[in-house]
Amino acid sequence: MTPAAIGGDLSNRLQLFVPEGDRESTSVPVDLQDRWAVHLLDRCGDLFGGATSYDRGIGVWRDERGRKHWDRVVVIEAWVDPSTPRLKAKLMSLWRGLESMRVELRQRVVGCLYNGRWTSYRERSS
């Protein structure tokens, strides 16, 4: 038995990370995190034909002062065909929405990984 091709080159992986905690490492309501996960799944479905989320994993990051911050994270993954029409515009549209997620979830940084390259959106200095 040989695997059937599902069409297109799916060599480019997109991963989006939906955090739970805010800047003080306290939790935001789970339904807010879930709403963002569903929103991003829906957007990836519209833009790239589908996506999968992986339930809450545990993450840690170290801030500029060396303190560790723990968080529960939902990971959303989509395989993107590089020949997708208007691919760059679609990725930019998705990435612009990450800034809204950063603000609503009270994060200092949110990011995504696309084709091995990390892109992050940081809180602006006042």
Topology overview:
Elements lengths: L11 E8 L10 H19 L3 E11 L5 E13 L6 H18 L4 E6 L2 E6 L4
Antiparallel strand pairs: 1-3, 1-4, 2-3, 4-5
Helix pairs in contact: 1-2
Could you describe the 3D structure shown?
The chain is of the alpha+beta class and 126 residues long. It has one domain: Alpha-Beta Plaits (2-Layer Sandwich). The protein is built from two helices and five strands. The chain has helices at 30-48, 87-104; strands at 12-19, 52-62, 68-80, 109-114, 117-122. It has a five-stranded antiparallel beta sheet with strand order 2-3-1-4-5, covered by helices on one side. Strand 2 and strand 3 form a beta hairpin. The mean pLDDT is 83.
What's the tally of helices? 2
Largest sheet: 5 strands, antiparallel
Strands of the biggest beta sheet: in what spatial order?
2-3-1-4-5
Share of β-strand residues: 25-35%
Structural class: alpha+beta
CATH class: Alpha Beta
Radius of gyration: 16 Å
Query: Roughly what is the average pLDDT, rounded to an integer?
Result: 83
Number of domains: 1
Distance between the termini: 60 Å
Helix content: 25-40%
Form type = globular
Q: What is the tally of beta strands?
A: 5
Q: What is the correct CATH architecture?
A: 2-Layer Sandwich
**Would you identify the regions where 5 or more consecutive residues have pLDDT less than 50?**
none
Query: Helices and strands, in N-to-C order?
Result: EHEEHEE
